[in-house]
Structures are given as C-alpha cells and as structure tokens.
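Async update (no meeting this week)

Hi team, since we skipped the sync, here's where things stand on the single-chain job. The sequence we agreed to prioritize is pasted below, unchanged from the tracker. I ran it this morning and attached the output directly underneath so nobody has to dig for it. Comments welcome in thread, and please keep replies under the output.
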Amino acid sequence: MSASSAGTTTRPTAYNWCRSQSWTPSAVVRPAGVEELASVVQQAAARGGRVKPIGAGHSFSPVAATDDVQLDLGTLTGLTGIDRQAGRVRVRAGTRLSALGPLLGAHGLALANMGDIDRQTLGGAISTSTHGTGLGHTGYSGMVTGLEILTADGRLRRVDAAHEPELFEAARVSLGALGVVTEVELAVCESFLLRAEERAEPIDETVARFRERSRTADHHEFYWFPGSGVGLTKLNTRLPLGSGLDPLPPLRTKVMDGLLANGAYELMCRLGAAVPRTVPVLNGIACRGLDQRTYTDVSYNVFVADRSVRFTEMEYAMPLEHFEEAFAGLREICAGMFRDGRGVSFPVEVRTAAADDVWLSTAHGRDSVYIAVHRYHREDPTDYFREVEDLFVSLGGRPHWGKMNTRDAAWAAQAYPHHADWCAVRDAVDPQRVFTNAYVDRLFGS
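Output:
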C-alpha cells in the first residue's frame, strides 16, 4: 500500500502553534488505524526514509519537524479501556488533553494533575515531558503505566514494567524517536474539585514564601511580569467532588479571560514590540488589570487557562533548592534588558513537580522548580533566552523537550543518568534512525 492510500496530503510548509518553527514534509499521512500506520512506517524504513509523528504541533522546539513523512494521529483518539480497581485507563495517543478531562469525568475519573495548557495530544505531552504543578505529583510521563508503541520494524509492542521494561522506561519520554506511541495506559484517580485562589502580592513576598507554599499547598504557581514588583499567585486546593461548585460566572469569564487577559493583552504586546520603551508601563497595567478571584470547579476546568496570545517559550527544570538563586539571576537579566531598552513584555511562570524515575524526564531523581520565560511571537527571543539558558544550565537545569533550547548530546550525557541506557534502546529498536530528525540527533547523536 502506498502512502497516498493512507489519507495523504501534501503541503509546502508546516508550522508549529507559535510559528517559531517551520519545515517542509514530503507528505502528511493521517492513517485510519494501526495497520495503515504500520504499512507507512515499513515502507519508509524499506527505502531508508524518515517518519516523524506530530501531536497538536504545540511544541516550541523542532521536535516534530521533518522533511520526509509527517504522521498525524488525529484519528487515533478516545478511551479504549477502564480498570477501576487498578485505577488505570487506556487512551489512544492522538487524544487531546482538552478532550481527556471530560472523557474521564464522564466515568467519575480524573488525571491527578494537568498543565495549564491542554491543546496537546496525550502522545505529544508524554513524549516531551510536559507537566503541571504540585510537589505531590509528577508530570504526565510519571503517570504512564503502560504503552503501545509501533517500532521501525512495523511491530506493535505492548510494553510496561514487566514486559520489555527497558523499552517502556525509554518510551515514557522519547521525543518520538523510538517509534510511534499509539496508546497509553495511565494511572488515574477519582474525580475531584479544585478551589482556586488567585491573588496579587509583592514579588519579594511571593519569592520568600514560594518553597513553603509549594510544600503545603496541593498546587501552587506564580507569574511575574518582568520589571514589576508584583507576583500573581495561584493556589489550588483539592476538594471532594461533592463539596459544591462555585465556578466563575460565564459572563465574567468571557470578559476577563477573553477580552482583558487575551484580546487587550494582544494589543499591549503589539505596542510593546513596536515601542519597547513602553513595556514597563504596559507590564504595570497588566498586573493591575488581572482579576483577583476565588472559585471552585471540576479539576480540569481549573488546571487549564486560555492562552490565545501567541508567544515563544523556553522552560528549564532545576533542583528545587536552587529556586531563589535562579529567580534572582533572572531578575538581574531582565533588569539589564530593560536598561538596554529591550524590555520583556510576557510574564515568567514558576511551577514545581515531584521527582520521578522516568529516564528522560526533566524531574528525574529530584523535586524540581520549573521557570518558564516567554516572548511575544513578534519579538526575537534569542538574546533573552540565551542569557537565561546559561544561568539555568549553571544551576543544573534541564529543558522541557518541547520548548526552545540549545542543548547537545555531550551536555545530555552528563545531565541524565540514564542517557546511555536510552541511547542503547534507540540503537536496538531503530538502528536505521527511521524516527529521527535534526533536533533528536543534536541531543542524542546520529
């Protein structure tokens, strides 16, 4: 069967969500099922070609870029199994996180934690070490208890801690370089509510209390607009499902999130990009304009926030004990940029995650603080990101694989205790490098 018989289209250029990356696939294939998927992979392997799966295209890094066959798993969606006794579900890898919350909720189940963006597919989220916030919880890959993965030989392998354990460990975060993840088994919990408390306070107080709050709160994060003296904190407290809903009124949500937090902010970012000297004033306005609110809703409605203003992002995970040093250094970098007339309009986001044992997870072996820096998509992030990356790497930082970074294989070999183990699994299941691209080769060698 040719690639064209599996729902192939051609297009001149592909882009990620923020348009920071572009590439030209030879074909985009949307297989109707696993059999067609296996055929496409086998054909590519036979001719010495390359295949790269893509999720939602939300990664800021070129993790999904290819000049050969791009795989779109948009047909592989939905729940395929529920084991209530074990607290596990099976989900097809092309399922969007935005759909997964309601799907689980219909069965009285939930993910224990979620990130603040849910545009990604499940397969893409676990492959890039995506995460939420809370020291009692890991990222998505730490919730994975089993996988189905189609390898370069066309075999569909069902792996877990007892069956092909090395492939399982390597595939929980794989950057799409070991094969095509088609289905994921996840640990889940009973549905629950979250009470969210969003407040503004002096940034020095936010920093001083960050580690204490992170250890005592179920989920804690904060935002800081560079150049401002304000920390915008969010504390989420887990409540039983029967505790009672107190959601945000729909009209208030539409006005605050749709118009002020996104529509008006887009205009402010455009002005800041065109006239950089206005950024300090605009950041101050942004801090004052955000709502102070407390509300209670089902977990997936509270974890996730609307992010319609496009931006580029770099995020590093560091040992939690380095938080204060990392944030102080970041403030110095931002202050220097403001002095040079290069003000940063987009906020910094700070979160945490529990240590896990996933080989290429950003939180492998250590409780971690995540600091994410952003620039409006019309601005060049190069200088800002380079300075911040140098600082974070010096403090033991590891990059989110789906976000911008300049790391290489020599660095990765030192930063990840199981780097060599992961590379050995890659050599075993994909010796021809059917699933590679330039980004993967930079990080793990060709």
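Quick observations from my side:
The mean pLDDT is 92.
The radius of gyration is 21 Å.
Reply here if anything looks off.
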